[in-house]
Give the backbone structure.
Amino acid sequence: MKKLILLFILLTPVCLFSQNRYDIVIEEIMADPSPQVGLPANEWIELKNTTATPVNLQNRRIGDATGQSGPMPNFTLQPDSFVIVCTGSAVAAMSAFGTAISVTSFPSLDNDGDQLFIRAANGRTIHAVAYTSGWYQNELKKEGGWTIEMIDTKSPCAGISNWKASTNTTGGTPGKRNSVDGTNTDATAPKLKRAYTTDNSTIVLVFDEPVDSTIGATLANYSIDGGATLISAAAIAPLFNLVQLKTSSPLTANTVYNITASGIKDCKGNSIGNANKARVGLPVDAATGEWIINEILFNPRSNGYDFVEFFNNSNKIFDASKLYIANRNSSGIISSLKPLSTVPFYIFPGDYIVETEDADNLALQYLVKNLDNVLAISSPPSFSDDEGTVLALNFQGNVIDEVKYKDDWHFKLIDNAEGVSIERIDPSGISQDAANWHSAASSAGYGTPTYKNSQYKLVNSINATIEVTPKVFSPDNDGRDDIASIQYAVTEPGFIANVTIFNAAGNPIRNLVRNGTLGLTGYWNWDGLDDKGLKLPVGTYVIFTEIFNLQGKKQHFKTTTVLARKF
C-alpha cells in the first residue's frame, strides 16, 4: 500500500502557491472596451504563468492605486497558460474566449493610465505595471475597443517598450497567446530620474523603470553630499521604481544636495554603469519675482501646441506639483487652473520648466535641450492667437506672475508669427512691460523651450546716468544684439523722461518714450524701427533723452548707437 501511495504522489503534478516575483505576470489589459471592436464590453486583465510548474492562484489579489480586489478562488494556472480575471457579471461573456475567473471589487481600469498589481496571499507584490494611453503606440486604438498586450513576458518590467496595442481583428486575445508576442531584448540599464522629500529626513528616488528590490534596498549603493548621512534604504512596492532613503539628521533648508546611485540593476540584471546623480532638497512656496513666466508660444503651427516656459529666478527649491498655470476668461476671472505636475517634481535655482500638452510634439517642433523639464498637462489652459493672459500661481493660490500678452509684441518685421514664441528679455524686468518681450530669434528656431532665451539680456546696474548697449545692434532677429537697450539711473524718485531718436541728418524718426515715469533704475528698448514701424537704414543714430521732475530739475543727454544689418 505504501508503494502505491508513493507512486501516486510521484505521478501527480506539483501545484505551488508560488510567492516568487514574476512567476505570474499581467500580460494583457482591456482598460477601455468602448467603442466595441469585437470583444464584449467588459474590463478585464489576463494573467500568465511564466514558470514550468502549475501555480494555484487562491487568495491572490489584484488592485490599482485606489485599492485591491477580493481574493482569487482556488484555481490552478498551468505552465505557459493564461487566465482572464474580471468581475462576476463578465465571467459568462469572457468564458467564450478562454478560462475566466472573477474577483470581488475588481478595480475600475482608467482609460488614460493606471497602476495595476497582483499580490500573493502574504502581501508580496508578484508583478505590477503602470500603463498609460501611450502604451498603445497607436493613436486610433487608444480611443477604445482594443487591449494592450505584453510583447515578451521574459521582460516583465520593461515598461512601454514591451507593450503595444493588440493587432488581432477582434481587439484582443483573451485566453490565448498575445498577437504581438515576440522577443523584446531589454539591454537598457535603469536611470535615476529625480528625487524628492516627504519630510526633512526622508528622500524618495525615482527611477525610470522598476529596479531589483534587493539591490535597490542596499544602502551601500547610495551616497549624498552636503554633510548629510544616509542610514537606510528600501525599495517601494508595487512597482519598485521608487527607493526610500533616510538621513541621520534633518536636511538643511535652502540647500541643494546631490545623491549618487551606483550598482542598481533592473529585473533583467542590467546595471547602472556610470553613477547616476539627482538633486534634492527641501522645497518652499514661491513668491512674486521668484517664479516667473519666461517664454510664451500662443500661436503654434497647425500641427503644434501652445507652450509656456517658467524660470526659477531665485536660490530656492520649488515643487511643480504645488505650482499652477491658468488663464483668465472673458470676464477677467481666473480660469482653467492646472497644476504643473501631478507628482512631486522639484525645480532648482536657474531651472527652466516648460508646460505643454504634448511633450513629444514639442521636441519635433523645437530644439528641446532638457526633455526631462517638459511637463505635459492633459487639457491645459488655452491661449488665444491674438491676445490673452498667462498666470502663475503658488500653493496658496496667490498670483505670483501674470502676463497679458498681445500679438503686436512680436518683432514688427516678422511676416508670419505662427510658431514663433515671445521671450522675456530680462528675468528681473517688469512682466507686463511689452518692451521686456521680443520674438524668439530665427537662429534659435523661433523658440527656446527648457533653456536660456535667445533674446536674454540681464540689465545690470550702470555708473553713467544714461548708457546705450550695445554700441552696434542688428535688428534682424538672429538672436544676437537684436535690440538697443537704453539704460538709465537717477538718484531720487519722481523723474519723467522723453526719449527721441534722430538720424544722422538730425531728423526725428522715432518718439520712443513720452512722459514716461522713472524708477531709480530702468531701461527702454529700441528695435530699430521708426514711428510707422518701418525698417530704418544702417547708420549712426542719436538718442536724445530729456529727464525732468515737477520741481523744475531737468537734464539732457545725447548718446549714439549704430544700426547695422547683415547681408
